[in-house]
């Protein structure tokens, strides 16, 4: 089962693309190191305070993939400088 989640996030304290990318890269690296997922910034690359992060997980069952993706979302929520807004799950 392949699970994918995309989440739009706001980074309110970013005043430049450089500051935004520093936050996003820190989150992506932490997700890659802690979980068995693939992660990338998939939208709003040219916006200062907005981003879309895509996370994909391949597992033997939907329950395992869903658990891993939900843990990844909890990690994103633990960063105080970013606020997750719209989150969508897709299953293949």
From TrEMBL:
Taxon lineage: Bacteria, Bacillati, Bacillota, Bacilli, Bacillales
Pfam families: DUF503
Name of the protein in question: DUF503 domain-containing protein
Top-level lineage group: Bacteria
Transmembrane segments: none
InterPro entries cross-referenced by the UniProt entry: DUF503 (IPR007546), TT1725-like_sf (IPR036746)
Record-linked SUPFAM superfamilies: Hypothetical protein TT1725
């Amino acid at each position: 089962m392949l699970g994918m989640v995309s989440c739009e996030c706001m980074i309110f304290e970013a005043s430049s693309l450089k500051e935004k990318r520093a936050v996003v890269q820190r989150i992506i690296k932490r997700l890659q190191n802690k979980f068995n997922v693939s992660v990338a910034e998939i939208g709003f690359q040219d916006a200062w305070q907005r981003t879309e992060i895509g996370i994909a997980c391949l597992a033997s069952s939907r329950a395992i993939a869903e658990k891993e993706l939900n843990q990844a979302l909890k990690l994103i929520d633990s960063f105080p400088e970013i606020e997750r807004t719209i989150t969508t799950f897709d299953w293949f």
